[in-house]
Amino acid sequence: MLAYDVEFLPVASAPPLIELARRVLGPEFILMMQNGIINRPHIGNQQAKWHRDLNYQHWTSSQPLAINALLCVDPFSRSNGATYVLPGTHLISEFPTTAFAEKHAVQVEAPAGAFIVLDAMLFHKGGFNQTTEARRAVNHVIGLPFMAQQIDIPSACAKRGVEMPADPQLRKYLGERWSPAADVFEWRRRRSSTKP
Would you say residue 31 lies in a domain? Predict the structure, then answer.
């Protein structure tokens, strides 16, 4: 979303979110994606299926690889389809049985403006919105930089005329430092500019 509107940059770089990422992931991490979620009333949606935010990954790690931070634009309530989570499933590779999911699913309610933060390997899903209003959120997946961004955020910003921030730490967080070099000459130039 920040590739379309610079107003979404402060959401992705909120100091408490950055500090939490540092505490969970260590000193180096990258914004892998930022996307908008709209849970419309009385309509099924893609987020209503159990999934992980490291999509299609069915393995586990002894350390967290990524977190997802869901900013609640609107309040998350049982009636408007607040997110369901399956506690502990970030520790098992395959999805458990449907019976397990039905018994152990927990619905997470939160006020507007709150972040719901999960291990990105935790199975979760959106609930069914029974109200007359859409429930909106902005999702962020923040992970270790050895994993690629879903979209090259610096290039997407450049194409849309969205200026990258001046802060070098923020530029690195948005992916500038971690994008692959275009060729071997660019790789060498980057290596020589990072040496002490």
Answer: yes
